[in-house]
Amino acid sequence: MLQAVNPFLVTGLLFFLSLVAGSLSEKIKVPALILFLGIGMLAGVDGPGGLNFSDANAANSVGSFALAFILFSGGFQTKWTDIKPIITQGVVLSTLGVFVTAVAMAIPIAMLPQFTYKDAFLLGAIISSTDAAAVFSILRTQKVGLRGSLRPLLEFESGSNDPMAVFLTLTAITWLTSPEVPVNELAVKFVVQMAAGGAVGFLMGRFSCWAIQRLHVANEALYPVWGISIVMATFGLTETVYGNGYLAVYVCGIVMGGGDFLYKYSLQRFHEGFAWLMQIIMFLILGLLVNPLEIINFSVINVGMLISLCLMLVARPIAVFICTLFSHFNWREKLFVSWTGLRGAVPIILATYPLTEGHPQAKYMFNVIFFVVLTSVMIQGKTLADAAKLLKLDAAVREAKSWTLNFDITPTSGADETREVDLLPDSVAVGMSVKDLRFPDGVTILLINRGDKYMIPKGGTVLESDDTLLLFGDRAKLSGVEQSLIRRIEREA
Prior knowledge:
CATH topology of the largest domain: Na+/H+ antiporter like fold
Distance between the termini: 82 Å
CATH class of the largest domain: Mainly Alpha
Strand content: 5-15%
Number of helices: 20
Number of strands: 6
Structural class: mainly alpha
Largest sheet: 4 strands, antiparallel
């Protein structure tokens, strides 16, 4: 006679199915997050899995924990040199843009008979943030790149606008439960949270780089534990001083991504994988929390579709065009940024806050928001590549190289590092032999990737268009070498 279902077996199977779904997403061109949610729903009480999970508090706690690591990883992978030119527009979009989106959505929602004007602002706040992972997962699966500074703008905005959405959601709940709280007190709270979050995140990022570099751990396999402790300590310390923990971990990640310390590459790879694990867990639990039979409801579908259309066609474009009014972006770029406002896991996590507070409309709101996220990803996600091509903003995407050699900063490596350089067709280095490049002492080419082949360079090896070079050397000299390699041939106008 079989025993009751073993939780280890169930968890292992769900993780395995999620990994299979992730690999299938590129082939069937469906975002992985949709498949993760689908697996969770199928495993739920209304699916063949039959698992009964309805604990909104647990889902909220797990989602908040996972989101902190996802934001840290996003910041850790961000290059300051990429976001520096668009930092002003990015900050405006991730703060004012979120607020404008919430208000612009609250107006039409308040006209619906199901919601009061306070409920409308709560709904607007919950769906006000975008999801970077969803955007770039779709662009990657459809093999579409973006020209100019669109990609760093979207990455930075999507990674940094979650703290604002969390603040607005909690503010709306406070407004619902304690209407006597004055507006000026909420404004002061916002300033304190953002200032404290940014300051603690920056200081913890600098301290972490210093500590890892100087306090050597005997076993290098323990450095991922450093990484986990940094995220948790940063988030917890910030919340203790009444700051925004999500903003703090994102800023901490950016600071550490721009710093130098031991085993940085290994730590980045670990956090990238750990962030994917957090996303899988988060989507599975949110999928379990959903009752599919409640989603397939005439009222939920009608209201959800109306909110989705208002969000995609009205609120998001208004916010983007207002926030980029004085920027260098042209109308086509602004239009594309408006269309890439995909909603992902964060709105669903935020939708659990009314559930934990016992709001009478909480379950209905949760179902509507879940529907909005699904329609946003399916409608906008399926048309992102077409929109980029239609607006002439698409660019070719080079496949990521899987080098057989990885180099990391170790206690004895000094200032050496590796760097990849792509040679464009009009690069001055195309047609030159390796011996004619005349690199400075301490810089060399380890490998050349040409099509499907990897070559060990020799003095007579001639560089060709679209080669990818793996350079090794002193980081102070590598930047100059990289600039000389990618310099383009000057042509007559």
